[in-house]
Automatic annotation (TrEMBL), chains A, B:
Protein name per its UniProtKB record: Bifunctional ligase/repressor BirA
Organism (species): Pelotomaculum schinkii
Binding site for biotin: 91-93, 115, 119-121, 186
Primary role: Acts both as a biotin--[acetyl-CoA-carboxylase] ligase and a repressor.
BP terms from Gene Ontology: protein lipoylation; regulation of DNA-templated transcription
Classification via InterPro entries: aa-tRNA-synth_II/BPL/LPL, ArsR-like_HTH, Bifunct_BirA, Biotin_CoA_COase_ligase, BPL_C, BPL_LPL_catalytic, HTH_11, Transcriptional_repressor_C
Top enzyme class: ligase
Family indicated by similarity: Belongs to the biotin--protein ligase family.
Known EC number: 6.3.4.15
Domain BPL/LPL catalytic per the UniProt entry, residue ranges: 67-259
A cellular component annotation (GO) from this entry: cytoplasm
Residue ranges flagged as DNA-binding region: 19-38
Length: 325, 325
């Protein structure tokens, strides 16, 4: 109902809507409307109320709440089911995993304005001041086996890089397996949590942390050399809700393409956008470090690393450092 | 304490142990001992009590309770942590997953005498009359990435086939990826449930269902042509607790070998024991059926299927039917 009131006010942006009109079209009492107006104000919406005239929306907060995300969202699945919204949360992936376990539908979305327990790959802490980043997790249920799951994060890398390019003009390159870089600095991290049997995925939680409106001082000192934000790159504030919609739409497009047509199309786009192919790299895996030439990506997403002795090493996961030669 | 009383009685098998002796060596009251004796009787132990003489163990039930499994178990990890024991449970894997989620140590074991909600691969129901089969799940925390997990079930296939051969003389062959067959009929099924991030496994639950003492009539009609038990194969009753120990010991051996030395050793043993290599097969995957010649197993456990048109197809999971030519 709060959402319906907001929709009415938005439709009449720049003008007053009378209390009577709202009452009629939503079939609620004046008191109920007043309560919803108050709730919207608490959410950060600026609403002017004039006696005997009505209400006018004069300011929309920079928020990732369901109302803002859903406004004009053109997906069929992603974000069209439940949206769980938190102003602060330890980890959106954790919440999404719990919902996945409970059997929620594909496309269920968890969003947060701040993430306190967020981890990057290999368990690293990921910085996240409130209202500056975008933290979201999607519950997916692809009919694939666990070994194909690395492909989903590559699908997401392509999709999010595309959305970022279109929305902000920032040309984000992909660093294998799933970081997005702008001018060599991390602007988006993608992670996945998997619950599976041998033959099939039960659910998969795809998480993304996008550095949208951070200033350099918003990053912890140890990350300042390696992290950037879209605002730092462009000098312009990002409309986070709009970018979130673009990400959901782009991801749905590429995810569907992958499910229907296999990894081929995605892989060739991934390669085009890659900044960690055909160059010398150092790669840290769970228990070993490798150096070599990043020669190609295998059909299943594995990195093919040409070792100094000429042998080819297949790596399915790891942390890449681009070696400056 | 109940376990300590049982150990004392077992140590003195064939003789009476006086109440006084038990009291002294365990530092408990006569009343406490009586309670433990009663509890043991409820568990199926036959214990004679003679006034002024003492207690004697005259019969041990065919049970998979922690006391029976631990007696003489020579592992370091598997089954040495907590053992969760159920006379009937929907699924041991489910319980083990919950414990895994709670952070239990590696080697935590869940055993059941009967499994009502057991599923085989691809969600099939798996038959399990009480006290006849062996149903166990182990929580594992290998430092590997999700793509390597198929290897664990292959490690388990080799380990359990070996244990079954040693304990019962039944030469169980492995059908890719992880069924054990005796004379072409299923005698053991192995499954795995996985919880992982992109780069590493959080926990993995390895489950095994062994047909130990079932008679043909214990299987549902639709399984009688395709399932057998160790008792049917040998004509002899299996000591289920002893076989369980052998499985845990054998698995620990092969699992350690795999962690330390990689998949090579395991793979060559797997190939030797395979009954689904170098033969024509039909393979059902999640969304497709394949026919061809099962030519080899890849280093990561994938089946290499030679298609009629000469092409090689890599399959990471699926259900194999051996084609009779």
């Amino acid at each position: 109902m709060k959402e319906a009131v907001l929709r009415l006010l938005k439709k009449n942006r720049g003008a007053y809507v009378s209390g009577e009109e709202i009452c009629k079209s939503l079939q609620v009492t004046r008191t109920a409307i007043w309560k919803h107006i108050q709730a919207l104000r608490e959410d950060g919406y600026e609403i002017e109320a004039r006696p005997r005239v009505g209400y006018q929306l004069t300011g929309t907060p920079d928020r990732l709440n369901p109302e803002e995300i859903r406004e004009g969202l053109s997906t069929r699945i992603m974000g069209q089911n439940k949206i769980f919204y938190y102003s602060t949360i330890s980890s959106t992936n954790k919440i999404a995993q719990e919902e996945g376990q409970r059997g929620c539908a594909e496309g269920t979305l968890v969003v947060a304005e701040e993430q306190t327990g967020g981890r990057g790959r290999l368990g690293r802490v990921w910085s996240s001041p409130r209202y500056k980043g975008i933290f979201l997790s999607l519950v997916l249920r692809p009919l694939v086996n666990p070994a194909q799951v690395a492909q989903v994060t590559m699908v997401a890398s392509v999709a999010l890089a595309m959305a970022i390019r279109t929305e902000t003009g920032v040309v984000a390159g992909i660093k294998w397996p799933n970081d997005l870089l702008a001018h060599g600095k991390k602007v988006c991290g993608i992670s996945a949590d998997l619950n599976a049997e041998m033959d099939r995925v039960n659910y998969l939680v795809l998480g993304a942390g996008i550095n949208a409106n951070q200033q350099p001082e918003d990053f912890p000192v140890e990350l300042r050399d390696t992290a950037t934000s879209l605002k730092i790159e462009t000098g312009r504030r990002v409309d986070r809700a709009k970018l979130t919609r673009a990400c959901l739409e782009s991801f749905e497009h590429w995810y569907t393409l992958w499910l229907d047509g296999g990894f081929g199309t995605v892989l060739s786009s991934w390669k085009e956008m890659s900044v960690s192919l055909n160059c010398p790299v150092r790669i840290h895996t769970l228990n070993k470090s490798w150096e070599g030439w990043a020669e190609d990506i295998d059909v299943d997403g594995a990195l093919l690393l040409r070792l100094p002795n000429g042998e080819m090493q297949r790596l399915v996961s790891g942390e890449v450092s681009l070696r400056l030669t």
